[in-house]
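Note on ligand handling. Small-molecule inputs were canonicalized before submission; formal charges were left as drawn, and no protonation-state enumeration was performed. Where a ligand contained multiple stereocentres, the stereochemistry in the source SMILES was retained. For pyridoxal-5'-phosphate, this procedure yielded the string shown in the input block below.
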Amino acid sequence: MSALFQNYGRRPVHFVKGSGSYVWDDRGDRFLDFTSGIAVLALGHCHPKLVQTIQAQSEKLWHTSNLFTSTEQEQLAADLVEETHLSHAFFCNSGTEANEAAIKLARKYTKKHKMITFNNSFHGRTFGAMSATGQEKVHSDFGPIVDTFEYLPFNEPQILQHAIDDETGAIMLEMIQGEGGVNAITDEFAEMIQSICDEKGILLIIDEVQTGIARTGTKYAFEQTVLKPHIVTLAKGLGGGFPIGAMLGTAELFEAFGPGTHGSTFGGNPLAVAVAQTVIDLTFNEAFLKNVNEKSAYFQKQLALHLLKSDVKGWGLLLGISVDQPLAQVVDACEKQGLLVVGAGETTLRLLPPLNVTNAEIDEAVTILAKVLN
Ligand SMILES: *Cc1c(COP(=O)(O)O)cnc(C)c1O
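Structure output:
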């Protein structure tokens, strides 16, 4: 019997080494990793600059707690909100914690409890974030959840419009439902949300845990819409593989998150912040973002060319293809051919290469996908 709780359905392969877009298992077999640790490894495995950062910082200072000033957190916060309408950051350790902070801040600021989220969303596993998640299977058997969330169908502007009342404090959503099936927001829905938030003074929270940090070809995915969120949550790609999360917010929220309101012992720890700063230094620039968009266009073109049926969804390098065969079988078959992919929802194969993937690696993935899917 395993000494681990079996709360994950783990695949029977054990990786021991990674470099760039590749990982090696304990038998020496090489795999092309188009999961990127579920959209985490923005710069691939063991990027030399990140290795260097961890080595240097690990010899200087690991942890101080938030009892003391952190110039490094200040710098990272400033870089994350630069060129946006957002003003402040709070650091934590994961996506669910970033959303937990967002839910608490929204309630405290608006003094309203009702929050709208959407079917097939995913916001995390802690009580607040789990309750925000619009998927019955995530809640089941855990007893009463936080009961102030109202789940609506995604991309249905009319239904949303009718659901808003004076008790509604906030709307929370992803720009692309990552876990839910790579479902991107439509322009029409984004326009409706923004006009509702403007008109009714409703707080807008965008969960960019999966879509943020250049994954969709812009620093944040909301930049590709008309939306101006009051709160943006981040994690996954932010640390490039080192655990760190963040909540960004507008200036008007500043007073609501004063001393003692919220916190995290580890949040914004010097080691995590140093790594995230290096990730941001490398990804938040025009050349890097342009390259993500070029790689996305190339990937989509090759999929269209080589797959008999290619129904590609998503933006940037958060792509999905609808498959007819059972998802688990497709993931298995790809792995046997040396390509790691992950499912999303019931029928979507999610393609999440590192953001610095090469055309040759994309070709290799497309060849395997064609073999498996055609
Ligand atoms: C992964 C994910 C989360 C949860 O992040 P954790 O770090 O696993 O807590 C929340 N929201 C979205 C959109 C995610 O993709």
